[in-house]
Amino acid sequence: MVMHRWNIFHILCFVGHLELLNHLLRRLPREITEGLLVRQSKDLQNTVSTHYHNVVNITHFYVVDVQPLHIAVRKGRKQLVTSLLEFSKKCGLHVRNVDGSTPLHLAVQRGFVEITRLLVEASPTECLHAENGVGETPLEMATLQELLWRTRTEYITSANTPLTLDINGDSRTQKYFDLAKQEVEIPKLRATLNQLLDDGRLKKGTKTTTELLAFAVAMEAKLATARTKPVPEIIPKKEEIVSDKTDWKGTLEHMRKAVTARPGLRNLVHLIDVQKSVDGDLRRVNKGKKRNPIRSDDDGFQPEEDVVEEQKRKSMIINHVSFDADGW
């Protein structure tokens, strides 16, 4: 695997190697580890080369998350997030990525309820009320995501759309044949039809009677076939890393409780972070176009102060706004 502009902790959080991450957290000098955990990578395109059975699979992707914690949160790697937070509460909880999102924003955006809980417990109060690149706090984002989820589940999925129709018994939504249930229901169907015929409510030879009897015969044949099939053994999948589950409602409830218990002033997003968010979106949209080369120092990272000054000079927003002596 080859990744440019990331240090070892970026890579471990991306691939989900918990054992090696914990080993490095224990063995490396603390001051070096803390520096690596808060070091920001460039917001450029990365390349991943994976080798499997002598086949090389090359994947290009745009780097959005700048710190290892951001990557672990986005991937839903609860155990890695726990290890990073146990090592240090100063590993980038307040840092925004290219989109202007803190790790808490990322967890809430994906509905990772357990990671949200971990980050809320570790974060200072100002992080609970911080805006992202588009001016949303974690609570506002959780409210919107829960509303979108509820709208999809309660309205869209209940509609009789083509995706939910069972066409010729070959639909993706076709239900599993419940053998235990049909062992009871199909004999009941046959007994009911026989009773209706004996009572004269169904007349032999009519179209309705013919179709009902044909349906009963088809179900009995299906039941006989199901009896002969062996019950497949379900083997639980062994996972090295346990990913957090998506729970939009639980995430919203947790954020509401946290904000109520720890009220604070709204932490407004800076104009430079808005500019970074817009610039990041434009770069991803135009990632196929040729970019101008970006100057870097010897270790492969951007000089942070120079980048900020350069973005301020290029920003149309900042150039038309008056600033105080401290620059804001």
Largest sheet: 2 strands, antiparallel
Note the run of SSEs as H and E.
Answer: HHHEEHHHHHHHHHHHH
Poorly predicted segments: 44-62, 160-174, 293-302, 322-328
CATH-scheme architecture of the largest domain: Alpha Horseshoe
Strand content: under 5%
Which structural class is indicated by helix and strand composition? mainly alpha
Please provide the count of β strands: 2
| CATH class assignment of the largest domain | Mainly Alpha
Textual characterization of the structure:
The chain has helices spanning 8-15, 18-27, 30-38, 68-74, 78-87, 103-109, 113-122, 125-128, 138-156, 179-199, 207-228, 248-261, 271-285, 304-314, 316-319, and strands at 45-52, 55-62. With 328 residues, the protein is mostly helical. The protein has 2 domains: 8-155 and 243-291, Serine Threonine Protein Phosphatase 5, Tetratricopeptide repeat (Alpha Horseshoe); 163-228, no CATH class. A hairpin with a 2-residue loop joins β1 (45-52) and β2. α1 runs parallel beside α4, α2 (18-27) packs parallel to α5 and α7 (113-122) runs parallel beside α12. Mean pLDDT is 77; it is low at 44-62, 160-174, 293-302 and 322-328.
